[in-house]
Each structure stands twice: as C-alpha cells, then as structure tokens.
Design goal:
Aldehyde Dehydrogenase, Chain A, domain 1; 5-stranded parallel β-sheet; 15 helices
C-alpha cells in the first residue's frame, strides 16, 4: 500500500505524528487507495511558516511573471488529464467523463488567472485639488488558507488557489479527508510548474485541521467550500479574529419548467442537474418545480429516463451515475427518504441502496424521485447532497417563483420556458446568485462570478474577475506635486 506525504516548503514530508489514515474507493471498499498523513498543529505551523516566509519574495514578483507559471500549471494539468481523472474517480467515485471535466475547469482557471495577472487593474480618479493625483491599486494580503470539499477535488480548489497565487499571496491547502490524493496531485503539478517553495503547501488530515488553519494568527484569508454547518463555524472564528473569510456553502437549487418549454430539453436538464456527480454538487438540481398543466406527464417521462440511468463504478466506461462518497452519505439518503415518506411525499422511483453483484462492496444509492413535495417538508427545505430529487407543483408562474425562493439557500436556479418575458422576469425575481435559462442548474464557467445569496454564502464571488476581491486589498495613493500644504476635508468651498 502506497503511503503519501504532506507538501511543505517545496519538500515532501511525513507528518510529525507519524500517523496515517486509509483512503477508500467508494465504489469498492476493499480497494484502499493509499495511506495519507494524519496531520496536526505542528504540521500546520510548519506550512504556515513556510508560506509566510515565501510571501516576502512572492508578493514582489511581477504579476505577469506569476501568470507565466500559472499557464504552465494549466499545461501540466492538460497533459496529465487522463491520468489524474482516473485517480480522482477511484478516490471519490464520479465517472471518468466527469473527473475529466473537473480537471478541465482547473485548466481553464489556470489560463484565466494567468492572463488576469496582466489585468489586475486599479482605478485613478481626479483630485478635488490642484496639482494632485489620486490612484488606487490591488495588493496581496499574505497567507491564504484554503479548505475544500470532496466533490470537485481539483476544480474547486483551483478556483481559490490559482487566483490567490496570481494575486501574489501564498497558500496552505487542506483538501477534504475523502480526497487527499487529489491534494497530492495538485502539489505535484504546482511543483513541476516551478511554483517556488513555500508559495503552495498541502497539509493532509481530517476535519478538525480546518480550525487549526483558520485560527492560526499568520493566516490572513480563508477560502472555504463545504457544508453550511462547518462554514458558519469557520465564519464565526474568522469574525472573532477579524479575518477575511469567503464561504461557499450549501444549496437547494430549483429548476422550474413552464408549459411552453421544450420538454425533452427540460428532462435532459434535470437528469444532468439532479444526478450528475450523484447529486453531490452544491449546484445540483435538488428541486424540480413543474407547472400544474404538465405535472403528471413530465413526471412519467422523467421516471422512465431515470430508471434507465446506468449506476456503477465510475471507472466503468458505461457508468452514468457513480457511488456516493461514503457510508454516512448513504445513511443520509436513507434518512431523508424515510422522512419524505413519513411527511406524505410520493415515491416515484428509487429510494434504496443497491447491493447486488458489482454493487456489493460500494456505496451505491438508486437515483430517487419524490413527487408532491410541499414547502413545509424537510425534503423541500434541506440539502441531501445525494441523488434524491424533490418535485413540487406550481399553479402559476408567480407560484413557481414563490416556491423557488421558499428556502434558506440561494446558489443556483433554472427556468425552462420559451416566453422571453417570463424568462427575464425570472432573472429579476429568483433569489439566487446564478440563474440559467433553458439549461440545468449546473455548468458554471471559469471566467464568470460564482456564488450565492442567503444561507449559501457570505457575499463573496469566486470565478471571473470578482475572485480577486477575495484575495487582494486596495491601497489608495495621493500624490501632491503643488509644493505647498493643501488641506483636504476642510471646507474649501
């Protein structure tokens, strides 16, 4: 069994505790991917110290030169895409065609962030006084702690790590305990690209390490993607310590389908949105809101398509839906299905663990649909993070919007309609950071802002130009060449 190490200050090092944990293939629990460091405070301290020291030089490297290295990162990810994708699938379960897409997002982000190093624009403004200039520009902040979930092991960390480094910061990265190998591969790529020692560090371990990173006095910024419960706790710590914390948390994303929609397209959309990545996406279509005029007909057609989805190990070429990440997630799916039945929802299909044959050693949950889900039901309100879809009936367009907005989350949303007026009204009325028209709730692009409102996030946006608002500070400069004292903020009028 292969044993892996942390990556600190450009070196592969064993954890100070000399203890390790096993990483298991969710499609076959007899397959041990490897043993990974059970790191602790001493390891975090070493990584932060390395990042703090490296920041002294890295912040002064011209931004376009930093971009040159990031484009190399993109090139290496592209060259290693097939290899890394298969390792990721073995580690976290989703089919290889999805893990390849995961890596492509990192490639896109590397090229985009690299190019943006030539566009880290500031702002100039006229002074209110003679012979004086006003300007402002972005500056890096320092050591950034990055903590991410398992479902996009390369893409999501790339959204944080690469822009942070492009902006002149250094990074200490803790991947999810369920995908430590992806963290190792990320470090391998960064090392090969020539990212200097200490600029990027990976410390592997379990969940409690997140607190160690957030609470470390030399970590100035936190980028987090994960559950709402954990994110809120980290946000509380960051607030107490006066640190910038970017939180990307849960979702309960609706797809609305109106009677005039292209029904085949809408079915394709909800299939991909609800059951891609086995429903384990923050942007997953977990709620389907159907107009009453198409309700039963649409459910019947969707049921037929869902029951044909090929469930299986992600490394099998025919697989469309892989396993959930671990046994605890199986139990969560089971619990919510029982709750839904108890509250009166109608089970359309699925609702059970699959255990026969090649599924015997894996965490496979049958893609599940519940209909007649009302706003007061927990399945309507709470994130399952699995292949469980809740369908609700809307009496009108206005009612559909009301249902879409009737949860504590606001990440992604979708409406299928040919009515341009309703489409634009939905854009204005839906409470979400992202809205798709005639497309599923998933499919964010690297050069556009990504994030949500309400319980989904705390106001920051990853992706696109907005991500640099997380990882930079503004410095304002006044240049007075009048050769005399000019008193600002005095009544000169």
């Amino acid at each position: 069994m292969e044993r892996f190490k942390n990556y600190i200050n450009g070196q592969w090092v064993e954890p100070k505790s000399n203890t390790y944990f096993k990483n298991i293939n969710p499609a076959d629990i007899s397959d041990i991917v490897g043993e990974f460091p059970e790191s602790g405070q001493d390891d975090v301290n070493d990584a932060v110290a390395a990042a703090k020291e490296a920041f002294k030089k890295w912040k002064n490297v011209p931004a376009p030169k930093r971009g040159d290295l990031l484009r190399k990162v993109g090139d290496i990810f592209a060259r290693r895409k097939d290899e890394i994708a298969r390792i990721m699938t073995r580690e976290m379960g989703k089919p290889v065609f999805e893990t390849k897409g995961d890596i492509q997002e990192a490639i896109d982000t590397a090229y985009y962030a690299g190019s943006e190093t030539r566009r880290l624009f500031g702002y100039n403004a006229p002074s209110e006084m003679n012979d004086k200039m006003n300007m402002s520009f972005r500056t890096p902040i320092g050591v950034v702690g990055v903590i991410t979930a398992f479902n996009f092991p390369i893409a999501v960390p790339s959204w944080k790590i690469l822009p942070a480094i492009a902006a002149g910061n250094t990074v200490v990265y803790k991947p999810s305990k369920d995908v430590p190998y992806a963290g190792v591969m990320f470090a391998e790529v960064m090392e090969e690209a020539g990212i200097p020692p200490g600029v990027f560090n990976v410390v592997l371990g379990k969940g409690y390490m997140g607190n160690m990173i957030v609470e470390h006095p030399d970590v100035k910024v936190i980028g987090f993607t994960g559950s709402t419960g954990i994110g809120v706790k980290l946000g509380e710590i960051g607030g107490r310590l006066n640190k910038r914390v970017s939180l990307e948390m849960g979702g309960k994303n609706p797809q609305i389908v109106m009677p005039d929609a292209n029904m085949d397209l809408a079915i394709d959309g909800v299939l991909w949105g609800a059951f891609g990545t086995t429903g384990q996406r923050c942007t997953a279509t977990s709620r389907l809101i159907l107009h009453k005029d198409i309700y039963e007909d649409f459910i019947g057609k969707l049921k037929e398509r869902v029951e044909k989805l090929r469930l299986g190990p992600g490394l099998e070429p025919e697989t469309e839906v892989g396993p959930v990440i671990h046994e605890a997630q199986l139990n969560t799916c089971d619990e919510y299905c029982k709750i839904a039945l108890g509250e009166g929802a109608r089970l359309v299909t699925g609702g059970y663990r699959v255990t026969e044959g090649l599924y015997a050693n894996g965490y496979f949950w049958k893609p599940t649909i519940f209909a007649d889900v009302t706003r007061d039901m927990r399945l309507f309100q709470e994130e399952v993070f699995g292949p469980v879809l809740a369908i609700s009936k809307a009496d009108s367009f206005e009612h559909a919007i009301e249902l879409a907005n009737g949860v504590d989350f606001g990440l992604s949303s979708s409406i299928y309609t040919r009515n341009v007026n309703q489409a634009f009204a939905a854009i204005n009325m839906i409470e979400a950071g992202i809205t798709y028209i005639n497309a599923p709730t998933i499919g964010a692009e690297a050069h556009m802002p990504f994030g949500g409102v309400k319980g989904t996030g705390n106001g920051h946006r990853e992706g696109g130009w907005t991500v640099f608002d997380i990882f930079t500070e503004w410095k304002t400069v006044y240049i007075d060449f009048s050769d005399k004292l000019q008193r600002a903020q005095i009544d000169n009028y």
